[in-house]
């Protein structure tokens, strides 16, 4: 059973009384849970073959109406979300630098039903050794925090650990809309020579395609979730290759590729894909 499904089942015991009213808000807890999983994937840092470190401190920014509905229960909901992140990390063989925490914050610039997730890696203050998903040994003093609390900065390496890469590995972009400041930004890691890299860009956010297929849709189970009412739960699938292609997965509104309505099309670097009211730019480059 998937981690998100288990999370939904645990919530079933909470959805009564006051929680029944809370969960009528536009933002659903399972959507936040899916976003936390993606935040781990997008900010995972490979230290060595056996160790991949992911953030352990998360902030979920909500619109004023959603925050007012959820904030009275933020402690219990935060604990459930933290447990879901821990389960997902064990499944993916990720490790943490410290205990997992999920906080809710109000963001005045968000409309009802919209949210943002930020994350950072905070080292544990006590020494603890564990397996996948457990806190890692304490690290030396962290780098200076970025504006707004240092979210998006990678952790400092603990004593004796192999040196960290100068930048996240290919396919691991920064957090949701929170790039590092220009003065502290580091150059991207050089791709392997002779290898074609594939990625898509949605509203300025880059999503690396690291597998042979990439499913786009509104569902939290899609590889890239698009929060657009005109997008089906599993809308379309991109297949990388020579050439790369896109296939409609029986969506309600179909796909438009380079101005043409279609069910299947060949993709080139710069192809514009329209799903619902969202434009997706397909990119590829020789590494």
Beta-strand residue percentage: 25-35%
Strand order of the main beta sheet, please?
A: 7-6-16-15-12-13
Shape: globular
Spatial separation of the terminal alpha carbons: 37 Å
Contiguous low-pLDDT stretches (5 residues minimum) are 13-25, 126-159, 164-192
Tell me the number of helical segments per DSSP (H or I, 4 or more residues long): 5
Rg calculated over all Cα atoms: 20 Å
Major sheet attributes:
6 strands, antiparallel
Let me know the number of strands: 16
Structural class of the helix and strand makeup?
Answer: alpha+beta
Approximate helicity band: 10-25%
Taken in chain order, the helices and strands follow as: HHHEEEHHEEEEEEEEEEEEE
How would you state the average pLDDT, rounded? 74
Descriptive key words:
287 residues, alpha+beta, 6-stranded antiparallel beta sheet, globular
